[in-house]
Design brief:
alpha+beta, 8 strands, 20% strand, 8-stranded antiparallel beta sheet, 249 residues
């Protein structure tokens, strides 16, 4: 496993920034349990109709249960923390039934990335990239979004919120094509990210469109400004233009 500090470089970010596997359950506290939750009510009701449809697609329907942290509490943690370890907030872990047994389906988590993390120099052509936030990328293993949030965060650490959706691939509907899985993951993460940005008061600047656009060619990628640069401008009281070199065109 690489530890070179690359922010989103081929799965290293999960190990460095977020929960590395769905088996980890210590990423958040103050969880609540719910049984038979409708898709639209999951993840603190942050899933739009498109996201709920995407969930139905990857799960082949059924009943859901979740452990969840409210977006209000996640927003407080992210607002008041300036690094990955203290800001990490798992907003939902969703379960479903498979052959009569409850299985874990996916988890969504948000953090404030550390200033020392780096954007990837280039993108993998096998994955899907989106014009959303600073950087948005989805694979069959996970989906990532990072968006600027100067209006909603304290002045320590980069003014960026990063989100990840980690599915339990063995429990996702196997009939889906890889491209369908990648898109479904991003639709759900994008929806939750918009809801969180709204709670933080930075939806207007986050660059998260109401409807997720189609995936962009990987050649459209432009490496965003470094997190160190964004932090320096933020702490100095200047409004950093985090999207001037967008991660997805």
């Amino acid at each position: 496993m690489r530890t070179d500090g690359v922010l989103w470089g081929r799965r290293t970010s999960i190990a460095l920034l977020l929960c590395t596997a769905m088996a980890l359950t210590s990423c958040s506290s103050e969880k609540k349990e719910a049984d038979g939750v409708p898709a639209a009510k999951l993840c603190d009701s942050s899933l739009t109709s498109d996201a709920a449809d995407a969930l139905e697609k990857i799960s082949s329907g059924g009943r859901y249960r979740e452990t969840a942290l409210s977006l209000d509490k996640a927003a407080v943690r992210l607002r008041d923390s300036g690094d990955t370890s203290t800001s990490r907030s798992t907003v939902c872990t969703v379960y479903t039934s498979k052959e009569g047994t409850e299985v874990r389906l996916f988890q969504i988590e948000f953090v404030r990335p550390d200033a020392g993390a780096e954007w990837p120099p280039e993108l993998d052509p096998d994955d899907s990239y989106y014009s959303s936030g600073i950087y948005a990328e989805s694979s069959t293993e996970d989906a990532f979004i990072a968006f600027p949030c100067t209006a909603g965060l304290r002045k320590h650490g980069p003014p960026v919120v990063a989100g990840v959706l980690v599915p339990d691939s063995g429990n996702v509907a196997q009939k889906l094509l890889d491209a369908e899985r990648r898109h479904a993951y991003m639709v759900m993460l994008h929806s939750a990210s918009r809801a969180l940005a709204d709670k933080l008061g930075c939806l207007a600047e986050a660059g998260l469109p109401v409807k997720l656009p189609e995936a962009s060619p990987h050649t459209d990628y432009r490496k965003p400004p470094s997190l160190k640069t964004l932090e320096k401008e933020f702490v100095a009281g200047r409004a950093p233009d985090a999207r001037k070199s967008k991660g997805s065109a």
